[in-house]
Amino acid sequence: MSGGDWRSAWNGALDELELDVANIEAMLADEHRHAETPPADLWKPPTEMGALPLELRPRADEILTRQLKAAEEIARRLTSNRQQIAMTSRIETGEAVKRPVYVDRAM
Question: Rounded to two decimals, what is the model's pTM?
Answer without folding.
Answer: 0.58
